[in-house]
Amino acid sequence: MQMYDLINKKKNKEVLTKEEIEFIVNGYTKGSIPDYQMSAFLMAVCLNKMNHEETAHFTMAMANSGDILDLSKVHGVKVDKHSTGGVGDKTSLVLSPMVAALGIPVAKMSGRGLGHTGGTVDKLESFPGFSTEISSEQFIENINKIKLAIVGQTANLAPADKKIYALRDVTATVDNISLIASSIMSKKIASGSDVIVLDVKTGSGAFMKKYEDALALAKEMVEIGTRAGKTTYALITDMNQPLGRAIGNAIEVKEAIETLSGNGPKDLLEVSLTLASYMVLGAGKAKTFEEAKKILQGTIESKSALDKMAEFIRAQGGDSEFVYNPELLKTASICYDVKAPCDGYVKEILTDEIGMASLVLGGGRVTKDSKIDLSVGIIIHKKLGDKVTKNEPLATLYANDDDKRKEAKKRIIGAYVISKEEVERPPYIYSIVTKDGVKRA
């Protein structure tokens, strides 16, 4: 088998076999196929696409290129959730304790953030002493004992994806649905859970700006998961404005705790409950969506989800006192209100710019080696459709550097579009994709 022939085959819009795709992925991972040939293949895929079967084979070849997390010693149906990323997206911190409080094992492997805020791992490190660097044995023991554990991604999880993605990033071959879907799903499949719930964001703060593109990605990922024998759901959710009101690290943790205490923002609660409901359905702990949602709401009312979060933090070395007293979490030294320049209604929020303001403050990483300031961030006071009065606060900035505060202020002001007419508020959730099709939320 020759790489030249396989590049030519895809260039001519032919379908590759499972064996041919495995040859490409394994050869590139081991170094026998050079960058220039893999680049040519990826460009051929971008131009001529892969069908569902090819995409599934490509995904499984990447998943099998390294470690597959063995969760066979975990009792019960294991569930996991993945988000395509957005501004203020802290749903994992909310839904994981709720689901675990129902006795469903949540086994999560999460990464660090690169961009406007930290990832789930970074946010959890707001709790003094908390560590995601626990052994495989401890990981399994924690899941069996308290039904929740989160670890950092291992270096050898889907190594083919890491290598291929780095090449895609510099060869203008990122924006292909098959390649995006296989990149995400190879890591989820290698993570070992039985049920995968996907949160596919769409809007100004999402990777997929258009609903149609988000829908295509959601369908492709559900197809891959189903072919891999995983119960897979995908929800398309709104990212035309930040989710919740907090953007940062410690302040997002505070908002997650407020939500588990019954005092969180409505949009964050609704999106978290809906995602969690499909995790519960997939685990067979409820017969209908409505039943799943009701029992999850019960974990907030009874405080069992909050207690589960404290138990989880304690099990991984963190100080659980911060769960019950979130005011102990770090807060930046500068608190500054960004005020509205005029009267009107919030017509549009350039959500990417809000994310960039958080990055400017130090809440995210420009490179993998950047150090995150966990104490900085933004609280959004005005969201889409809200009435605004001149000089009323649009947002509050938490900063440790005044120059960074000034730059973030400019970005926040530039991110808000205010009109004289009233504006319709977008839905929190657009649709749900399952193996049986698409339904509107």
TrEMBL record:
GO terms for biological process: pyrimidine nucleobase metabolic process; pyrimidine nucleoside metabolic process. Its EC number is 2.4.2.2. GO terms for molecular function: 1,4-alpha-oligoglucan phosphorylase activity; deoxyuridine phosphorylase activity; thymidine phosphorylase activity; uridine phosphorylase activity. SMART domains: PYNP_C. The gene is pdp. InterPro entries: Glycosyl_Trfase_fam3 (IPR000312), Glycosyl_Trfase_fam3_N_dom (IPR017459), Glycosyl_Trfase_fam3_N_dom_sf (IPR036320), Nuc_phospho_transferase (IPR035902), PYNP-like_C_sf (IPR036566), PYNP_C (IPR013102), Pyrmidine_PPas_bac/euk (IPR018090), Pyrmidine_PPase_CS (IPR017872). Keywords: Glycosyltransferase, Transferase. Belongs to the thymidine/pyrimidine-nucleoside phosphorylase family. Homodimer. It is an enzyme of class 2 (transferase). Gene3D superfamilies: Nucleoside phosphorylase/phosphoribosyltransferase catalytic domain, Pyrimidine nucleoside phosphorylase-like, C-terminal domain, Transferase, Pyrimidine Nucleoside Phosphorylase, Chain C. This is Pyrimidine-nucleoside phosphorylase. Pfam families: Glycos_trans_3N (PF02885), Glycos_transf_3 (PF00591), PYNP_C (PF07831). Catalyzes phosphorolysis of the pyrimidine nucleosides uridine, thymidine and 2'-deoxyuridine with the formation of the corresponding pyrimidine base and ribose-1-phosphate.
